[in-house]
Amino acid sequence: MERIVVVGGSLAAVHAIEALRDGAFTGEIVLVGAERHLPYDRPPLSKEALRGEPMPSPLRDPEWYAEAGIRLELGTAARALDTDARVVILEDDRAISYDGLVIATGAAPRRLSAGNDHVHFLRTVDDAAVLRERLHSAKHVAVIGGGFIGLEVAATVTELGLRSTVVEVAPVPLARDLGDDVGSWLAEFHREHGVELVTGRLAVDVEPVADRYRVWLGDGSAVVADLVVAAVGARPEVDWLRSSGLGIADGVLCDRTLRASAPDVVAAGDVMRWYHPLFDESIRVEHWKNAVDQGRHAAAVLLGSDEPFAPVPYFWSDQFGASLRFVGRAHAADDVQILDRAADRLVVGYGRQGAQIGALCVNAARELAHHRSAILSRAPLSV
């Protein structure tokens, strides 16, 4: 290979580039990114960035790219991919040919059914900068969506001394991801810290009212706030691939090695789903460590590796000083056991067909290694 193109200014992209150079690839590497910024970390956007701390710094400084001989094409998104001609077409109609391609375009916030013009979404450093400025004049923030990002934003603005209201369609937050028991514990935890939760009701529209905003709910009631943030999940950035012929189904479909359905094309990070042999299912993971590890693994595959990508997934979230850590999977669990529960501590195990597949540890990080080993060995879930 003489030229490898990496599409997406993401965490996965940076680690793919680093692994390519570590793997002795001496050819040309082109990084294509829709944002004008060098790739940066996104987890701080819902926490430190909103609190007024410095915005995330680039993952690598400009000198690193120069020394590694990386050609940067930032501020112009990819518009299409021709896998027959091996060409990436940019929004300005320029075409960049490739011998190998890494797709790492990440995910974008899901939109509401209506009222999007009156809400803030939080995905980029520019989004965070605008939202942080608006928080200076706000007293009450409505957050639509009780997932991890929504709860982190609610916790952050509450710690800033603002009133926060979370609107969640499920009876409790994160029920679909982690189960009703975990959702109930998190709901009580957030209420104790001052967050208002409006659950079991769908946000159907947002409209301006004088200098405030009314969030209309499905039962006809409403929440009125100075600022509205929507955090209702993310969708993989695959629109630019619709005519490429690649297999796509809630992400770029890849095999167990991270190869996509075209020669010399791999994918990494939030944009893709792959077959995971440990869990015997096709999964998509939107978390920091997965992006790092997949970026490096995808690069190795382009350079000749045929190893499957099969780690135990891991992610974390920090809310009101509580450290939430999760290993494995909770999807399709047929056995959920509360292993330890207190006002400030929670340990939950997830099993499927007699074997442990996941564990949530809140303020119990020392137990993670034990549960990870149990998942790898397919040990039975037990108290």
TrEMBL record:
Keyword DNA-binding: no
All copies of domain FAD/NAD(P)-binding, residue ranges: 3-295
Pfam families assigned: Pyr_redox_2, Reductase_C
Keywords: FAD, Flavoprotein, Oxidoreductase
GO cellular component entries: cytoplasm
InterPro entries noted in UniProt: FAD-oxidoreductase/Apoptosis, FAD/NAD-bd_sf, FAD/NAD-binding_dom, FAD/NAD-linked_Rdtase_dimer_sf, Reductase_C
GO molecular function: oxidoreductase activity, acting on NAD(P)H
Cofactors: FAD
Domain Reductase C-terminal as annotated: residue spans: 314-381
Protein name (Swiss-Prot/TrEMBL): FAD-dependent oxidoreductase
Organism this protein belongs to: Aeromicrobium phragmitis
